[in-house]
Amino acid sequence: MITDKMKNLVINGSAIRAMFEDGKNLKAKLGAENVFDFSLGNPSIVPPATVKQAILDILENEPEMFVHGYMSNSGYEDVRDRTAQYINSQHGTSFTRDNIVMTVGAASALNIAMKVILDPGDEVVLIAPYFGEYNNYISNFDGVPVVVSPDYERFSINFDELEKKISPKTKLMIINTPNNPTGAVYTEDDLTRLAALLTKKQQEFGTTIYLISDEPYREIAFGGLKVPYLTKFYPNTFVAYSYSKSLSLPGERIGYLVTSSEMEGFADTMDALNVANRILGYVNAPSLMQRVAGRCVGQTSDLSVYEENMELLYNALTEYGYDIIKPKGTFYMFPKCFIADDKEFCAAAKEFGLVIVPGSSFACPGYFRIAFCVDKQTVINSLPSFKKLAEKYTSVK
Amino acid sequence: MITDKMKNLVINGSAIRAMFEDGKNLKAKLGAENVFDFSLGNPSIVPPATVKQAILDILENEPEMFVHGYMSNSGYEDVRDRTAQYINSQHGTSFTRDNIVMTVGAASALNIAMKVILDPGDEVVLIAPYFGEYNNYISNFDGVPVVVSPDYERFSINFDELEKKISPKTKLMIINTPNNPTGAVYTEDDLTRLAALLTKKQQEFGTTIYLISDEPYREIAFGGLKVPYLTKFYPNTFVAYSYSKSLSLPGERIGYLVTSSEMEGFADTMDALNVANRILGYVNAPSLMQRVAGRCVGQTSDLSVYEENMELLYNALTEYGYDIIKPKGTFYMFPKCFIADDKEFCAAAKEFGLVIVPGSSFACPGYFRIAFCVDKQTVINSLPSFKKLAEKYTSVK
């Protein structure tokens, strides 16, 4: 009796769940110590101590009717002030509370932006490989995903194909930098080129093309790399942010959407985002966690373990013969499989206790994703398995 | 550049906001002590002490990666267990965790249910007067609202008209008991009759007609009245619940959806709700507040002030000549205006410092809503104004 559309989504959901079940089944078969589950992008490090301290301090010192009560659908004014000030201090931008909507994580930030701008049939450009959930969000508003195939050199943007795929029906492009699943970070040159292309296409077609930069991994960038801020490159930009990874609070559903003041119809857009937050059933970002985010903006968990894990894995796996574009951020790595069939490769990996995700799930067959948001010892213990997996395909010279 | 659909929603949103601004402007004009703002359904009483105690205890005794982390999209198993057990203890039902999805308030509970069952063009029956936000939720899924006009005798259900308005395209009916804006509570007889009618129509058309009972006011029932539990009357029932009013936590966005085990395709529906919670961008109900809800299920704020306010207002206003169906629950009252034009009436009320909402906002012109979730002294102080407002229309005999 559920809709056909939902039936298909449930089938997909079951496939994902089945993959997660694999880890459990493998542990029963091989012993827990011989299974290395790299399937889930779930933070492995505790929130910074300031999160707990902030909650205790808020409960002690802020009125509870205020802390747990309704506020503007866009969020508490003071929290939006502090958020804007922090972004300005990092990126030399000039945001105020009026650029910020506090949201139920980055997922709802993406959804309210799409609710405001997408008409049925509008095309949304995605750069493969990409987070599969974007397809579902686009489908919520009857948009049409248009996928640009991967840039296999750097996992940046395949600009020649992008240029061909932008049409008069293109309303939106979504980018994700630092990137899930590749760990790529787009350079200033990439973004300058992207902005120029979108601007040219807007003029050519007489349309507005919006850009959403989805940035839950902004703070996980390696070697002190600074991730460029998108509103400085292109005016019609939204930035979706989440505290899930930076503060290790994925269950709390707290994030925000930044809208460039230079966006066409900026004031109308902000009014509409406020309404969209309400009518999509979010109403507002959870109130206590908004107050926590206001106090903890700019702070992070100790993210260094992700870089250590990355270096360990990258050095060992390249030595074993894996072909990998070295990640510049996130807690993901996206090596090439030794065979064309990534599903077969990931199935074979299970023999060695490795739970990894086929690149097909990210519209990029022939690759696989390692989510290395696990403790360092798990990475170290897993290396012999990655070696054996490589030898399975390379030992016969 | 925003969509035309959103433009219209923003215009509506601005009208609501303008009404809320009225209170502020009136205070500047008449003095704060002479303004009585009954426009907003925002709890006026503090959460029970157990909420703060629960948060402190959770922070002290539960692992923080668990408290702030991801869980099943449907919510923590133990929280769903306790929720089911509590409902069973109150209503003699037999729910388990498998009937419960924890949600971002009742708003998201309604949205995930509609995502799962509504195809574009499906009709959704609403009973006037009703909470206007239902129209927006239905619109999120391209459903078509079909409004049954009010039962002016009891603000129950106009069954004759309902029978005519159920068509082969009817997929869903939404009821809200205790009711916003009338305070009505449907009786067991009402619900038995409703269930029989829906069952008959399902057979007649060979269709499935779902029922959502939206119950954020369940615990605010007067004189010890017990509000019947809908799944006991009709198998294809969802119950949407929120802790916003019972625990005075409206900003925290925490609630749940109960699905009857007797629903057609129950298992598929539960799988689909789990997926819908994810892909609509909620992902899961906020984790810390889920844990709080698990500990505080069955507890409430001291709700007695609402009943005291109701009695005060009802007795005084009927004495002044207002025609009122006495509320049986909620913190709303829905008297008849002294003139047909409810907007004119509510504008006139401002002269006396009264901020009240026209019945037109609830698809019931000629009436007005008083949200008496304010402190008792405000109610007492407002009575002379209600008297003067009545005299304006009744003094010339």
What do these coordinates show?
The structure is a homodimer of 397-residue chains. Chain A has two domains: 4-47 and 302-394, Aspartate Aminotransferase, domain 1 (Alpha-Beta Complex); 69-296, 3-Layer(aba) Sandwich (Aspartate Aminotransferase, domain 2), CATH 3.40.640. Helix content of chain A is 44%, strand content 12%. Chain A is built from 13 helices and twelve strands. Chain A has a seven-stranded mixed β-sheet with strand order 2-8-7-6-5-3-4, sandwiched between helices. A three-stranded antiparallel β-sheet of chain A has the order 9-12-11, with helices on one face. A two-stranded parallel ribbon of chain A has the order 1-10. In chain A, α6 links the parallel β3 (123-127) and β4 (144-148). In chain A, α4 packs parallel to α10 (287-296) and α11 (304-319) packs parallel to α13 (376-394). The mean pLDDT of chain A is 96. At the A-B interface, α1, α2, α3, α5 and α6 of A face α1, α2, α3, α5 and α6 of B.
